[in-house]
Amino acid sequence: MSSNPFETSVILDGIRRWVEIESPTERPDQVNKLVDLVAAGYRDLPATVERIAGRDGCGDHLVARSSWGQDAPGILVLSHLDTVHPMGFIERLPFQIEGDSAFGPGIYDMKGGAYLAYHAFRQICAEDARPPLAITQLYVSDEEIGSPTSRALIEAEGLKAKYVLVTEPARDGGKIVTGRKGVARFDVNIKGAPAHAGTRPEDGRSAIRELGHVILALEGMNDLKRGITVNVGVVRGGTKPNVIAEEAYAEVDLRVPTMADADDLVPKILGITSRTEGVTVKVTGELNRPPYEKSNAGAALYEHARELAAELGFELIDVFTGGGSDGNFTAPHTATLDGLGVDGKGAHTHYEQLYVSSIEPRARLLHRLYQTLR
Length: 374
Prior knowledge:
Layout: H1 8-19, H2 28-40, E1 47-52, E2 61-66, E3 75-80, H3 89-92, E4 96-98, E5 101-103, H4 107-126, E6 135-140, H5 151-160, E7 163-166, E8 176-180, E9 182-191, H6 207-219, E10 229-237, E11 247-256, H7 259-270, E12 280-289, H8 296-312, E13 318-321, H9 327-330, E14 335-337, E15 344-345, E16 353-355, H10 359-372
Parallel strand pairs: 3-6, 3-7, 7-14, 8-13
Antiparallel strand pairs: 1-2, 2-6, 4-5, 5-16, 9-11, 9-12, 10-11, 15-16
Helix pairs in contact: 1-4, 4-10, 8-10
């Protein structure tokens, strides 16, 4: 029996149990099977567990609170249990270990990191001394679709906390995340007038042609040097090749590094109007996740984690990334550190994997953060 409380094989076996319960966001029944397992893991610990019933087609959320320190701001650990992979994907990507890689749906994004946080909490509970701050672990069921049913809960818990640790996966060889772009989503609906494309084209007003103008306007807002990206990712329109298109539709993704950029570009996109008489353009949408900008408090939290990592024998480098996470909701008002999960690659792909060698050092880092934050 190993005396190492962070034995990689033991932790990996726990991760496997979580991975082998598939949990696509759109399958609340499956997500709740995983919630059952996670909740059961706290039954023998000095913690209270609250389960918030799912709604709008999403699974339940789970809040586990340490029995100590809850009368003062403490540490909030943010994790999600849902994955992007559809049911049955585990047959294509079964849990298996090859060399330094362990494969499975959601193992990297982010069941590996979520389990590390849970394991580190178990170890804290097994020790004689309680750490200075309360630990609250929040597991949500809808992060992969933008956290529509958990955002209010995340923000409320984030406002009560002194620090937020997010167990999203590490980046590019173990880098930690101290900034993320804000994300906005928009729907563009265009209504024109149909006509026969051969005999009476002059009677028509093409919604597709107008959509072309809109796409060019949106593409013109891209500014890669400033980190601003506008992507028209979905388009639909028309009925037949010999009919002037009456309707057209597009879905748009905007990424911005700062709130100033969001304040500038969101109204511009919402304000796009038709250039053609007889055609209407309606744009709806909003900023879904605010930018996660590296604050002074966030920088100090990173420096503390970097020093702990050095004591544990590895270098912790921080990075800014374009992807959003639930950390975007807490970073504007609470010191937030993201990317604390496992290292690996292939999030959302058919080769998703974690690096087995990252398990012990990163579990130990979370444990030391629990011990030393005050």
